[in-house]
Specification:
By secondary structure, the protein is of the alpha+beta class. It has helices at 3-14, 19-29, 36-50, 53-67, 72-87, 98-111, 115-129, 135-151, 155-167, 174-190, 194-211, 216-229, 233-246, 258-270, 274-286, 295-309, 311-337, 349-369, 374-389, 459-475, 480-494, 507-517, 531-538, 540-558, 581-593, 621-637; strands at 393-399, 404-405, 408-409, 417-420, 433-438, 447-454, 521-528, 563-567, 570-576, 596-599, 602-605, 608-615, 643-644. A hairpin with a 2-residue loop joins strand 10 and strand 11 (602-605).
Length: 645
């Protein structure tokens, strides 16, 4: 054991006030002495013999520094014991080491996603350090507080604190300066200031080359993520190679490597290598809470990949995201209602207004989680969100990708869509802005959209409204499964299981769509010729192939919103009113005539017969179907492979 440390222990035996020297020694040698835990144990034994309560508490907390990178649970046990010991000491908050041990607890709570507990510790610590008498801890809690604010989605508040830190950079160590640069990059990354983000990371890289404050793999991780964001494939690949080389000798699932694995997952997702993306996201998921300032975005990125490769992991990630959102809401509510603030800026009226809204969102989540019926979900969304968002109207719709909603076309992507006054026609022209976003994450025939309409808004209100909508989109996560399950149920309900086109229950949707575009619609009743003979001669497996191929051809020719299988070999189709309907029908017959199915060395030709009638409104469907059925019967009796109008 090092002679210097033994001398310090001897001094401590004679004078307890020298305990600070031992604390500093252990901090400075925590990574350089392989058996540092033996040093701490000697300190603990000495403190126990001296009956020094502060020494015993501090020694237990020191074990946190030893184990936090490899065994967070064990590290937390030691630290929690240290806090319990401190709390038994009179005037404990002023004792040596208390702020350090409190900070360890803050780190653990943040790493494990306990944002509410993190906030409560931060509030206590900032009150103890706000006069900057404990300048080092003031910066420590400020830095960790930035991570917390980013996890809460308050990027601008995080940036304000960072600016305060930079004002006093004379007090910062090289390690602190490196962390500040990395935080500046993270904030810019979250705000989509991509070029500024890269500049900060390059500045960090240059600083790190001189001072070695960070491991090189961490810098490579940041650069890789930044180049992905800038769509720079060449530099991205370069830093993937560097990063893989840097971490090749490390333990694969080490919690310390979470940033590296996260960057690699993002790269492989970026190049559409979803198998490798899944591999690295799976590693990250074990320790996603270590993604300081990125927990929620990390989970959001993992979900679609997990859905593709591991449905159980997908559901676990959904649950984790829901729990995290509840932590965020709980924390923001405390901030809104507390008489004491971490920083004076939190008492700002506009932010207090937003936090107050979060209370309603928390209630909204709880109500949504209690229901599964689509109509009930819709009623809650429309009623509660209109109140929460103070909107002119809110609507929840089940629609296809190019659905026309009162004059605006909803595009098939999940980003927030904003339509301004000039783009709003008809029923929406009394709104100044309409916002829409898609809620469900799977590409089926239907998508769920939330549409929100607003009147005149000032610049501040617009900023708040968009911020709230981004939170609403995240808060809707607890109903994600409801929506997915309902969406899948709808597909199973109104789509034919064999051919994947609409069935008889999907006809109503087809009719709604057709009469939005046309006043005259031709109804086609279609039947595969000699289908019973095909089944009897070649078997039902061959018959299924004939049905599948015919449905595909009809779907391609008429469009997927214009054809349904309504029984055995019967199909119904629709053609919008056109002058050359006969030419269209001949082309359809020719398309089917050109088809055949190969089955067990036999070639089966396919033809269809068609009966046609005309509709001028949706309500005429039943009458038009009877008429088209009669014409189909005539076409069959007249030799098949033809149409009759």
């Amino acid at each position: 054991m090092d002679a210097e440390f033994l001398t310090l222990i001897e001094e401590y035996n004679n004078d307890r006030s020298t305990i600070e020297k031992i604390r500093i020694y252990v901090l400075n040698h925590i990574y350089s002495i392989s058996n540092i835990s033996e040093y701490i144990k000697l300190f603990l034994d000495t403190a126990t013999n001296l009956n020094d309560e502060v020494g015993c508490a501090l020694a237990n907390g020191m074990f946190f520094w030893v184990y936090h990178g490899t065994n967070l649970k064990l590290a937390h046990e030691y630290n929690h014991k240290a806090l319990e010991l401190y709390h038994k000491i009179p005037d404990y908050s002023k004792k040596i080491g208390y702020l350090s041990i409190l900070n360890n607890e803050f780190i653990v709570d943040n790493y494990t996603g306990k944002l509410y507990d993190s906030y409560m510790i931060m509030k206590e610590a900032m009150e103890l350090t706000s006069n900057k008498q404990n300048i080092n801890y003031y910066f420590v809690y400020s830095i960790n507080g930035i991570y917390l604010l980013l996890d809460l989605g308050l990027c601008d508040k995080a940036n304000e604190i960072l600016n305060k830190i930079n004002e006093d950079d004379i007090y910062l160590s090289n390690s602190d300066k490196a962390i500040v640069l990395s935080l500046s990059a993270k904030i810019n990354w979250r705000l989509n200031n991509n070029k500024e983000c890269l500049n900060k990371i390059l500045e960090l890289q240059e600083f790190n080359n001189k001072n070695q404050a960070f491991d090189d793999y961490l810098i490579a991780s940041y650069l890789l993520e930044s180049y992905i964001k800038l769509d720079d494939i060449d530099n991205s690949k370069k830093y993937v190679d560097i990063l893989l080389k840097e971490i090749s000798n490390e333990i694969t699932d080490s919690t310390d490597l979470v940033e590296a694995h996260f960057a690699l997952a993002r790269f492989y997702r970026y190049i559409n290598d979803y198998e490798n993306a899944y591999k690295y996201y799976s590693i990250v998921f074990k320790n996603y809470n270590n993604l300081l300032g990125s927990k929620l975005s990390g989970l959001n990125e993992m979900l679609p990949i997990f859905k593709k490769y591991d449905i159980n992991k997908y559901y676990k990630a959904i649950e984790a995201r829901s729990d995290l959102l509840m932590e965020i809401n709980k924390t923001l509510n405390v901030i809104a209602n507390g008489n004491k603030q971490i920083y004076d800026d939190f008492s700002e009226f506009r932010y207090k207004y937003l936090f107050d809204k979060m209370k309603k969102l928390t209630s909204f989540i709880q109500d949504i989680n209690k229901t599964s019926a689509f109509e009930d979900i819709k009623n809650i969304v429309v009623k509660d969100l209109k109140d929460i968002l103070e909107a002119k109207f809110v609507d929840l719709i089940l629609a296809t990708a190019d659905y026309n909603y009162k004059g605006i076309v909803l595009e098939k992507h999940s980003d927030l869509m904003i339509y301004n006054k000039k783009e709003l026609l008809g029923e929406l022209n009394d709104c100044d802005e309409v916002l829409a976003f898609r809620m469900n994450g799977i590409n089926l025939h239907y998508n769920f959209y939330v549409v929100v309409g607003y009147g005149v808004l000032g610049n501040v209100e617009k900023k708040e409204m968009r911020y709230m909508l981004s939170l609403v989109k995240e808060v809707l996560a607890p109903i994600f499964l409801h929506m997915e399950k309902y969406n899948e149920a709808m597909i199973n309900y109104n789509h034919d299981e064999l051919t994947k086109i609409y069935n008889r229950y999907g006809l109503n949707y087809i009719l709604d769509e057709k009469f939005k575009e046309n006043n005259n619609v031709y109804l086609l009743m279609m039947d595969i010729d000699d289908f019973k003979h095909i089944n009897d001669t070649y078997g039902h497996e061959c018959g299924d192939l004939v049905l599948i191929n015919t449905a595909k051809a009809l779907d391609e020719f008429l469009g997927d919103k214009n054809v349904a299988r309504i029984g055995g070999e019967e199909f119904v189709g629709f053609i919008g009113g056109i002058a050359d309907i006969k030419d269209k029908l001949e082309k359809l017959l020719n398309k089917i005539r050109g088809m055949n199915v190969s089955f067990n060395d036999s070639i089966i030709d396919i033809t269809i017969s068609i009966g046609v009638s005309l509709m001028t409104k949706k309500e005429e469907f039943k009458k038009a179907k009877i008429e088209a059925d009669k014409k189909l019967y005539l076409a069959k009796n007249n030799g098949k492979n033809q149409y009759i109008m």
